[in-house]
TrEMBL record:
Keyword list, A-Z: Chaperone, Coiled coil
UniProt record similarity statement: Belongs to the GrpE family.
Disulfide bond found in the keyword field: no
Protein name, entry field: Chaperone protein GrpE
Gene3D superfamilies associated with the record: 3.90.20.20
GO molecular-function terms, A-Z: adenyl-nucleotide exchange factor activity; protein homodimerization activity; protein-folding chaperone binding
Coiled coil, from the record: 119-168
Pfam families found in the cross-reference section: GrpE
Keyword flag Glycosyltransferase: no
InterPro entries: GrpE, GrpE_CC
GO biological process, any: protein folding
Organism this protein belongs to: Mycoplasmopsis synoviae (Mycoplasma synoviae)
């Protein structure tokens, strides 16, 4: 049988490694059907025969790993579970022998690991983007609130200035109105003074008349005179009625 050597150096098979192979077992050149089959074993569990895993470990440690090989066992040369095999020369032929080391990840596991790493990386990127988005939204909200506060401050300032300007303008208009009213009233009073003085002098003269009818009329006109004086005083026009030969008062 031609052997295809996979590795020329010694191979350390470890507990937990999984081996697969097509196996044929001979006892004194007779094929044992019971032990001739395709196997898949996890080393360390003795799933095939008790003591078989150690037999396989020792052989690979001594001769190295090959695709096809055989192991010869002398009578009582191995501590195998089946007593019927103890006193016979045994030959175990392995073909298409493969080892899946527990330290070596299968391709699917590698792909899964890579996918998990990519998923983790994408998750971190998404989390970072979400954080940046949240910060940007917070910044926008803060800017909007700042803008609204500034608008409110400007509105309050403008309202205050407008109110102040309106009050000042109102006072100015009221002052102008009062000045205009005084000016108009002054012209009216100036025009009224001569007729009023003539009326007063006429009634005073009538009181000294010898005609009783005239006197009575003049005394009646005192009521009208009083109404004139009241109307003038209501419009800030005070009547100056100095006594004869009295001293002039400049404060009037």
């Amino acid at each position: 049988m031609k052997e295809n050597i996979l590795k020329r150096h010694k191979f350390n098979l470890k507990n937990g490694d999984v081996v697969t192979s097509s196996l044929k077992c001979y006892a004194s050149d007779n094929l044992l059907e019971k032990y001739s089959k395709d196997i898949k074993l996890e080393i360390g569990k003795d799933e095939f025969l008790k003591g078989f895993d150690n037999l396989l470990i020792n052989h690979l440690k001594k001769f190295g790993l090959k695709k096809d090989f055989y192991i010869l066992v002398k009578p009582n040369g191995a501590n195998l579970e089946d007593d019927s095999l103890q006193n016979q020369s045994l030959k175990f032929e392995f073909s298409n022998f493969k080892v899946e080391s527990k330290d070596k990840q299968p391709e699917e596991a590698k792909k899964t690991c890579k996918n998990e790493e990519k998923l983790k990386e994408l998750t971190e990127k998404i989390a970072k983007l979400e954080q940046n988005l949240a910060m940007e939204q917070y910044k926008n909200i803060t800017e909007q609130m700042t803008f609204k506060n500034k608008v409110k401050e400007l509105e309050a300032s403008l309202s205050e200035k407008l109110q102040s300007a309106l009050e000042e303008k109102t006072k100015h208009l009221e002052s102008q109105f009062e000045d205009s009213k005084k000016f108009v009233l002054q012209k009216f009073l100036d025009a009224l003074m001569d007729p009023f003085n003539n009326f007063v002098m006429a009634t005073n003269a009538g009181k000294n008349s010898d005609n009783e009818i005239v006197k009575n009329y003049c005394y009646g006109f005192d009521i009208v005179k009083k109404q004139f004086i009241d109307a003038l005083e209501k419009n800030s026009a005070n009547i100056i009625d100095p006594e004869l030969n009295s001293k002039f008062d400049a404060n009037w």
